[in-house]
Amino acid sequence: MELRYLEVFLAVVDHHGFRRAAAHLYLSQSAVSARIHELEQELGAKVFERSRSGVALTAAGEALLLPARRILEDARAVRRGVELTSYAGRLTLGVMPGGAAELTRPLLLELSRRFPGVTFSFVHVPMHGWHEGILGEVDLLVTREPYPGHEVVATELLREGVGVALPASFDEADAHTLTLDEVLDCPMVRASDATPSAITSHWGLEHLANGFRAQRRGPAADGPLETSERVEAGYGVAVGPASVERLYGSGAFRFVAMTGVPDSTVALVSRGDDERELVAAVHRETADIVRRLSPLVLGGRSPGIDDVVDAVLRPPAEARSAAGDGLEG
Predict the structure, then answer these.
(1) Which of 60, 224, 241, 282 could form a disulfide with 45 if both were Cys (CB 3.0 to 4.6 A apart)?
(2) DSSP assignment, residue 236?
(3) pLDDT-derived band of residue 321, with 50, 70 and 90 as boundaries?
(4) Distances in Å between the alpha carbon of 163 and those of 100, 103, 106, 253, 312?
(5) pLDDT tens digit sequence for 289-300
(6) Which residues pair with residue 237 across a beta bridge?
(7) H or E segment at 36?
(8) Span 45-60, average pLDDT
(9) pLDDT attached to residue 112
(10) Residues whose CB is less than 8 angstroms from the CB of residue 15 and which lie 6 or more positions away in sequence, other chains included
(11) Domains along the chain with CATH numbers
């Protein structure tokens, strides 16, 4: 079966008719009809029922739909895989604490596999290492909002709800959800002075509350693990993405979803003025990796990558001694 038959078949399905499919494929409508006819002859069954109101899939067409999509995706992946072997060079890819949650390890592994001629240096960027010019030190960065700098190219990796970790002793810990105003009425865990103000402000929800500054209590925390310890100790609450509970455990605190606040987004970002084709190719492949869920659950071990990912999830002091300055992937 020829791929061009399947391409035309899917175009008719996706564009709801022969005329729109022809326009999308830059073919004449008669050429589209001819290829569908050839496909039906090869299958020995009609794939579309034609009527005045349009076209509809037959039972045979329904049966063909998913296999056709898989075949074309596999064919495109083969072509793209061959093209990617032509890329060469070195890239430094930084990963902020928490990374892209469970997507981090498979994403880094798959990028290494897809670009065999590229040497990736995967580095753990601690919270205090973030600054507006960080993209002058790394080529790409896996980070949550706020993104560094004013103009970045961002490929979304993960979008999830925001919640708040509360000491079990707080009355609000029994709530099913909490509003922004209810959270701002609570004391918050104090952030380390080394934590960039943009991050402290963002997760203190100041950008949503017209600059309101919450009361902050307790010893300063540097990173998610120390923050969770301060919450457990009862000093205050801490706002974070839903994956915090999965990555670090709930311990002696409750994690309650917030309503009326934007989702948290993790992205792979690079400088807006970086016009290197290799960087653009990494963005394109990252989007494809995220879209294809199956590669993101692959197993296996890669010491360089695993050390960086593990460092992201360790307490700051332990991470600094274990991760070093960088690792070759």
Answers:
(1) 60
(2) -
(3) very low
(4) 17, 20, 26, 12, 21
(5) 888 743 344 344
(6) 188
(7) helix 29-43
(8) 88
(9) 92
(10) 21, 23, 24
(11) 3-84 (1.10.10.10), 90-145+276-328 (no CATH), 162-259 (3.40.190.10)
Around Cβ 298, how many Cβ atoms within 10 Å?
A: 11
Other Cβ atoms less than 10 A from the Cβ of 37: the count is: 12
Helix (H, G, I), strand (E, B) or coil at 89: strand
Are the C-beta atoms of residues 282 and 89 closer than 8 Å to each other? no
Q: What percent of the chain has pLDDT over 70?
A: 87
As a whole number of angstroms, the distance between CA 103 and CA 297 comes to 8
Torsion 255-156-102-191 (CA) sign: negative
Burial 204-232 (b: 16+ CB within 10 A, else e): bbbeeeeeeebebebeebbbbbbbbbbbe
pLDDT for the residue numbered 176: 93
C-alpha distances in Å from residue 210, one per residue of 201, 204, 206, 273:
11, 12, 6, 31
Bridge partner residues of 221 (DSSP): 191
Token representation of residue 248: 């670090």
